[in-house]
Amino acid sequence: MVKAILPMRLQDICVTKSKKPILTDINLEIGVSGFTIVLGPNGAGKTTLLRTMHGLDRTSAGTIEWLGQNNDIRKRQAFVFQTPIVMRRSVIDNLAYPLLLNNIAKSLALDMAKKRAISIGLGQALEQNAGYLSGGEKQKLALARALIINPEILFLDEPTTNLDGAATREIEDMLLKAFNNGTRVIMTTHDIGQARRLATDILFIYRGRLHETSSATAFFENSKTPESRAFLNGDIVE
Amino acid sequence: MNDIWLGLLNAVRLLVSLDADLFEIVLRSLQVTITAVIIASLIGFPIGAWLAVNRFRHRRLAIALLNALMGLPPVVVGLFVYLLLSRSGPFGVLNLLFTPTAMIIAQVIIITPLIASISHQAIRDLWSEYHDLLISLHATKWQRMKTLIWDARRSLLTATLAGFGRAIGEVGAIMIVGGNIDHLTRVLTTAITLETGKGDFALAIGLGIILVGLAIIINLAIHIISKTERAGTW
Questions:
Q1: Is residue B32 in some structural domain?
Q2: What residue ranges of chain B have pLDDT lower than 50?
Q3: Which domain holds residue B47?
Q4: Counting Cβ atoms within 10 Å, is residue B222 exposed (0-12), middle (13-18) or buried (19+)?
Q5: Domains and CATH numbers, chain A
Q6: Residues of A in contact with B234 (CB under 8 A)
Q7: What is the pLDDT of residues B12-22, one digit of tens each?
C-alpha cells in the first residue's frame, strides 16, 4: 500500500548559496490538498524554495518533515523545471522512463506511456526524437512524464514562462486535471493572471522571507503587506 | 614517388588477386582490434560515467591521471605486458605470450584510458544537462550511469572510433608481445614494419594503403549502421 507523505512541514528553513542568504527562517505547512502558487519578484527565492522542498537544494539550517519516515518520500514527488529537461530519447521512451526506474515491466511502461502521449496530443510523435519537439510540446512532455507516476505532490517552477497562449492553456488544463484528480500542486509563476486562474492559496516571498500565506481570494482582494500590494499593482518591487 | 605508385599498384594487385596471406592478415588485424575495442569500451564507458556522476576526494587527480594515461607509450605497455606474460612472469603459466590474446591485452591497456577519457567528457556534459531530472526522479547511481551511457551513445561512438583508430594503427606493443609470427600473430602494421625493414617499400606502401582504407571503411560503416545523421527519429 502506498503511504501518504503529506502534510509536510518546513521549520526555520535557511538556505545559503555562496555565503549569500537565499531563504531565511521559512516556516510553513503544506497540507494534503490545494493548488499553491508561489509569488514574488525576481530573486526573491521562489525557485530555491521549491527546490529545497523537493530536495534538490540543501538547507543550511532548519528541518523539512514529511508525514511518516518512509523511504518513498522522493518517489511520491515530481518536479517540472522552467526549461524542460528532455532526454535524448523518443517521446514514448521519455514518458516510460520514470516507470522503468520504478521497476515497472517494460511492456506495461510503454503501453502506459503510449496512452499518456496520445492523451496529450503527441500520439503522432511517439517515436520522434523528443529534442525536436517545439517548446510547448517539450513542456507538455515534461509535465506528462512528471505525472505518469501519479505523484502525491507536484512542484512546478514557472512552467509556462517561455510559452505562448495556446501552449500555456494546454499546460494549465493538464495541471487542473491533475489537481482535480488529487495531486497537490505547488507552482511558481510571474503571471498574476495565471495565479488568479489556478491558485487556491498563495505564498508571497520577498527577499528570501515568507511575507504572506493566505487563500487566493484573500490575497487578491486584501493582501496584507505593502510589498505584496505593490507587486499586485504592478509596481516595481525589488 | 615511384615507390608510392608501385605501392598503389601493389595494393590493387593484392586486393584483386584475393591474396590469401593478405586476407589472413587483414582478418587478424580486425579480430584483434575489434575485440580490444569492445573490451576497452566495456571497461571505459563505466569508468567515464562513474567519474562524471560521483564526487569524491582526489577526483580531479583521478581525471588528470586518466588523461595522462591516454599518452601511454605503446612500447612501454608492450614491455610491461611482455614481462607479465613471459615464462618467468606472474602469468607465464597461461602461455599467452606471442598469441593474438597477448596483442589484445596490450591494445586494451593502451586504448582503455583513451575511451574512458573521451567518454567521461561526453557523459559529464550530458550529466550537467540531466542532473536535476535524475536527482528529481530519484534514480540510483547505477541507474544514472546506465541512463547516461545509453543516452550519450552517439557521443560514445566517437570514443569507440578513437580507440579503434589508435588500436588498428598500433605497432610497438603488439610487435613485442605478438612477435610478428607469420600465420599466427602477423597483422597489417607489423607486416608493414617487416616489409619496410626488408626494403620492399612498394609492398609496405600497398599494405599501408589497405590499412588506411580499412580504417576509413570501418568508420563509415559504424556511422551508417548507427544512423548518426538521422537524428530526427530514434
A1: yes
A2: 233-234
A3: 2-225
A4: middle
A5: 8-86+153-232 (3.40.50.300)
A6: 89-90, 93, 127-129
A7: 887 788 788 88
